[in-house]
Amino acid sequence: MADPVLVVERLSKRFSSGGQPVTVLTDLSFNLAKGESLAVVGRSGSGKSTLLNLLCGLQVPDKGNITVTGESFSESVNSDSDARWTELRRRSIGVVFQQANLMPALSLEDNVRLRSHLAGHAAGHERGWLERLGIGAEADRYPDQVSGGQAQRAALAMVFAMAPAVILADEPTGSLDRNTADEVADCLFAMQRDSGCALVLATHDRELASRCDHLLDLSALHLGGTD
Amino acid sequence: MRVLSGVIVMLFAAVAAGCSDSPGDDGFAGLAKQMGDSEESGFLQPRPGNTLTFPEDWGSHPQHRIEWWYLTANLETPEGKPVGVQWTQFRQALQPRAAETAPPDPGAWPLEAAWMAHGAVSFEGGHWFTEKLARGDVGHAGATAEPFQVWLDDWRLESVPGSADWRLQASGNDWSYDLRLRNTSDVVMHGNEGFSAKSASGEGTMYFSVVDLQIEGTVTLADETLEVSGKGWFDREWSSQFLKAGQQGWDWFALHLAGGEKLMAFRLWEKDDTYLSGSWINANGDVEVLGNEDLTLAAINWRETPQGRIPVAWRLRVPAQEVDLTISAPAGNYWNSGLYRYWESPVSITGSHDGVGYMELTGYSD
Amino acid sequence: MMLVRAFVSHYRRHPFQLAALALMIVLATMLWTGVTVLTDQARNSLFQSEEAVAAGVHVVRTDGRPVRVEDFAELRMAGLCVAPWLEVRRPPPAGRVIGIDPLAMGCFGKAAPGGNRGELDGAPFLDISAAVRLAREGYDSRLYLLASTENETLPQGYALREFSLGPSTGELADSFLLNLDALSLLVLLITGLLVRSVHRLGIAQRQDSFDLLFRFGVPGRRVRQLLALELVVLTGVCVLPGLWLGTQLAAILGGGFGQALNSLFDVNLYAGAAESLPWQAAAVMVLLVLAVCLVDWLVPRRWQRAVSSARGRLLAVLVLFAGLAGVALAPDLAGVFAGTAVVFVAAGWLTPGLLALSAQKLSDGTDLDGSGPLTRWRRRELAVMFGHLALPVVALQFAMATVLAVQALVTTFESTFDDWLAQRLEAEFYVEVPAGADAGLAAERLQNLEGIGPWHRVTRGEAVISDEGAAGEDKTAVVDLFALTPVSELVVDWTLLASMERPWQRLAQGAVMVNEQLARRHQLELGDTLEFRVADTEMGANIVAVYADYGRPAGEILVSGSALPEDFSARFESFSVNPGEWAMAEISEQLADVWNVSDVTVRDNASIHALASQVFGQTFLLTRAISLLTLVLAAVALLIMSWVFFSTRAWYFRLLGIWGLPAGAIHHQLRRLSVTLTLAVTITAIPLGIWLTWVLVSRINPLAFGWSLPMDLYPLFWLELGLIAVVTGLVVAYLMRWQLVQRENGKQVKS
User: Fold this and answer.
1) CA C555, C556, C559: angle at the middle one, nearest 5?
2) Which among A199, B292, B354, C548 could bridge B258 via Cys, Cβ 3.0 to 4.6 Å?
3) Domain AttH spans what residues (chain B) (predicted)?
4) Which residues pair with C455 in a beta bridge?
């Protein structure tokens, strides 16, 4: 595969729950190239969120390697790896959650501005990003003054404004009704295509998952792993 | 009023240093307190052979420890209802003052003596009593011989200017009297030319009386003012050692008999012993001293009161004078409940003679 | 039962919230109980002493001369119940003694002054003859004739006056008590705010559970009943340990206070801590907790909303001005107290909104270059915090204002007391003129001593001034007379509240000065001619200065000794002497020689000064301790509140980390946020504190006692308070950070 943005090799993660070790991921490997999208599906507790956390450095694998835009991380943790992950999240990895992606004290525009400021971009294009997502009129509103769909569009605006290499989206439409969810998903895929970044999308929604280039079913993997 | 009682006890009892072992030995009101060597304490002690000096002895005696001016009167309303009146002023010295020494500066609020006055009225079974206290030498309490004045606050016994009469005024919360007193006889000296022995061992007082006072005036009880008239008896007595150690109290009588005779008798008593003495004054005013053997006195009836059991009827005999009297207090409670409680009641007399008088009993209070 | 379980299940999941509320109630009860017990005991103590010394009225001569033993005898013989009361003032530590005549008090019956106060062997009561002996050693003394009020008619030449003793120190103690009262009211207000804030937060977080219950068909009324029941149980349980802790606190602090009182009054007046638990304080606390927590159900919702609306704010501003005007103009203490309460309410109403608004404005104006967007976010977050933490913020503001005012008041008290002492003890030594000794001869001798330092002769007595304001026929008032011969350089440093040019020279030439009390009471001003009578001589002179004379009820006139008439008789005389080249022992030998006495009483003013200062120091310590405890409580409340509040905001700080902000930078933001919060509260507390100081010093004290204290500001203390605020802010930040780390770990496990 040419120009892989994300390389995952033999990734394993387990927790201990009530004294019993619970294996979440075992020997997971995949690559994702620029402009590609991967849907991660599986039932609750199968490790979707854990995988996303591992992919942005918020959690550390028990075993395995992760390479993002050429930066390579193993299971060993040190201050250097922390700093490198932080830098990656700041400039190259955009994260979108199901909700609460916005600072409630800031207007939508200020949220976008803060995010792109952290990514090192000069101010000035925030309103443009909001307009591209169809919510330019809401720029001065605060998160609690807009609908859930508008809030998720704003979250996408923030992510794309930082021009990321990878977008990690954890159930980005999970709290929206069908129509709104479709509209937001349309935006997401359209802009991902335009920007050429890679997308990892964790979801329950098989229809949404089917819109991605690749599918990773953690339930199956997991079952397979224990067999 | 712990301050007050504390101080009074201090003033009236615990005066001399080196006092006796048990409080019981001090007798009624501490009057048996042993003062020790009189030269050491500086107080003069009356002795047989001491005589009276007039008019000085009407006034106070700063060289003696205790003294009193004492008036009792058996009066009647115009309807013939008996009214008893008492007025007494006491002086108790804390330190003696020599005759030639000037009185202390009042501005120093000296504490050489304490004064106490008692006023009481007895009428129709009721008894009204008030006590007043003062320190001496600051002006509001004292006694002078010339002109004759004995006063404490607004209570006073004083000679009426331009006359031989006296005027007595005193008042309490719900009683008062204003009396004019006329003396119709000579002074009666008790005992040996005025030295009245109080025990066989020689303790005694200087003691004289005016026994035939004619009294008129008003007594006011609550809002009712009574015109009164009758007879009074006035005592002057002073000493530094009144009771002998062990003596617990006394019974004292001052009696006006119907035939014009008067009788004074007292009995000092202790656990196993009594000391009797008195004076018989006939209608002419002649005085006969009565010794221990000349008198008999016995309680014949007792009354239970909340304050103690009190002998209210007595038999008093003077065989040489063919006197055999039954003396009875009227119904009622005649305790004077001040710092030291004692019984002071008018009495009526039957037997060989009829008459009226006053009876003072100490040492019976619980 | 199921309902109850569902109801309290929130606390099973969030035991910390329950603990916070319980802790708040315990601490609030402790503080309130402590303050109540202390003020009650102080009041009882003073009341006892007042009962001991107050006869209600005393008899004075209408000619203004002091009463003497002759007057006593005359009045007694006129049938009046009067008793002598001779006050002998000795400097500490010997203190005041009172000579009484227990025999004369017999007529007072149970109402006897000094009655029930124990026997005569106990200070300060002595037999009057012993007191006279003391007085004649050269102490300032004064005779009063106490009367029972039943006396309707007095002989010609006498009049009845109100009799209140406990003179100089008594008023200082009263003033102190009044301050303590004001303080305890503030404490109640603050604790109420704190309890309410913690409780409201808990309710807000349980709102979802309540909604759920409502959806399950549980009526809202039933939920409220359960809430009230829960609060009653919790309060009942928590008030008890608070009560106990409060009495312990009072016992610890009260020991020092009792000591101070004893030193002030020379009597063991402090009603000890052996009394039973102060249930009244507990009852007040229970009522307070229920009231502040349940008030929402009583006040219509429309009003509640109106409070935070723009119109509400306007109303608050109006209320604020009304309160300020009330305090400035109120003719009596009640008015000032009410006005103060109104101002505090309005200030509390406005402050959080204003702070939030300022933070908002500041963030709107943030320069968006550089770290601008982050700064803007922090300022917005601050504005949100001001809104959410309104109650603890206001409580902290009040507590800080109180501490500030108390500190200024106490420091002012201390420094003016120092001035006052210096004024009274102006020379290195003072020498009392023994009774009967001729002060004039001594003055001549001192005049002739070569090389002696500055000295003057002090003569004290009485003067009569006309008193137009007096009721009844008697239009005169007796005031203290204070004469200096010569007007030496020892006095020129006195604090003059108002003066003409060269006041001391003018005084020497026959003018007069008056103390503040006299000037206030009789509306005397500079340049007025004061008519007064000394002995039988009518005098008149220009007022050239008004001097400060703290803590004394009496009016006083200061004259040059050369102006005194021949027939004036001094009540007390002394010399103030700086020995200069001489040894004091030599000077006292000279004086002993002049007076033909074996020994002269010389007092070393430095030691008196030290002792007196120590006594007052103890008194002030208590005030400070209480106010600081209030501050600590408010700070603890803010910590608790911030902790709980932060649990609702932690996600957003985590979001910053997800967005790539390094942990160090996040913690930096946390610190800046919380320190800005506490510092902003401090800044709003300063004007309120200054204003409160002004009220205590310039409004309450003059209205209550007729003398004011100078108003001093202590910016250094503001800095100290700022430092405390910074530390509080840092602790808050640390707690938040700790919570953030905990949560991050927790989040990972939960995923």
Assistant:
1) 160
2) B354
3) 66-240
4) C577
Give per-residue pLDDT as tens, A7-60.
888 888 887 766 777 777 888 888 888 888 888 888 877 788 888 888 888 888
Residue B366: inside a domain, yes or no?
no
Decide if A13 touches C, using CB distance below 8 A.
no
Q: Do C373 and A88 touch (CB under 8 A)?
A: no
Amino acid in the structure at residue C582: W
Nearest to B274 by CA among B200, B196, B192: B200
Q: Does C84 touch chain B (CB under 8 A)?
A: yes
Which one is predicted more confidently, B187 or C125?
B187
Q: What is the pLDDT of residues B210-253, one digit of tens each?
A: 999 999 999 999 889 999 999 999 999 999 876 666 677 889 99
**Total of domains in chain A:** 1
Interface A-C: count of C-beta contacts within 8 A: 71
- For residues A127 and B234, the model is more confident at B234
ipTM (interface predicted TM):
0.89
Q: How many helices (H) and strands (E) does chain A have?
A: 8, 9
Q: 10 Å Cβ neighbour count for C529?
A: 11
Asked if pLDDT for residue B347 goes beyond 90, the answer is yes
Closest by Cβ to C658, choosing from A87, A89, A114: A89
What percent of chain C lies above the pLDDT cut of 90? 3
Do residues A212 and A39 lie in contact, with contact meaning Cβ atoms separated by under 8 Å?
A: yes
The residues with which B360 forms a beta bridge, in sequence order, are B252, B344
Nearest CA among B110, B59, B70 for reference residue B336: B70
Q: Can you tell me the distance from the alpha carbon of B357 to that of B233, in angstroms, rounded to the nearest whole number? A: 9
What pLDDT, on a 0 to 100 scale, did the predictor assign at position C475? 62
Say whether A117 and C381 touch across the interface (CB within 8 A). Answer: no
Q: Are A195 and A163 in contact (CB under 8 A)?
A: yes
Shortest Cα distance from B137 to chain C (angstroms)?
10
Is residue A133 domain-resident?
yes
What distance in Å separates the CA atoms of residue A141 and residue A111, rounded to the nearest whole number?
A: 11
Cα separation, C227 vs C36, in Å, equals: 29
**Residue A132 belongs to domain with CATH number:** 3.40.50.300
Name the residue range of residue B132's domain. Answer: 2-31+39-361
The CATH number linked to B60 is 2.40.370.10
Residue type, C590: Q
Domain hosting A76: range is 4-220
pLDDT band at A187 (very low <50, low <70, confident <90, very high): confident
Nearest CB to A95; choose among C371, C652, C658: C658
Per the CB < 8 A criterion, the answer to whether C102 and B114 are in contact is no
Give me the residue label for tokens 């949560």.
Answer: C743
Task: Decide: C479 and C557 in contact? Cβ < 8 Å.
Answer: yes
Mean per-residue pLDDT, B267-271 = 84
Interface check for A167 against chain C (CB to CB < 8 A): the answer is no
- Within-domain flag for A119: yes
The answer to whether C273 contacts chain A (CB < 8 Å) is no
Better pLDDT: C285 or C39: C285
Count the domains in chain B: 1
User: Is B320 a member of any domain?
Assistant: yes
On whether residue A14 sits in a domain, the answer given is yes
CA distance between the termini of chain B:
21
- Return the pLDDT at C110: 52
Beta carbons of B163 and B152 less than 8 angstroms apart = no
List, as one string, the DSSP characters of B270-331: -SS-EEEEEEEE-TT--EEEE-TTT-EEEEEEEEEETTEEEEEEEEEEEGGGTEEEEEEPPS
Nearest residue in B to C86, CA atom: B109
Task: Tell me the sheet residues that pair with B253.
Answer: B265, B359
Residues in chain A: 227
The candidate with the shortest Cα–Cα distance to B13, out of C302, C58, C650, B27, is B27
d(CA C194, CA C25): 9
- Contact of B221 with B43, CB cutoff 8 Å: no
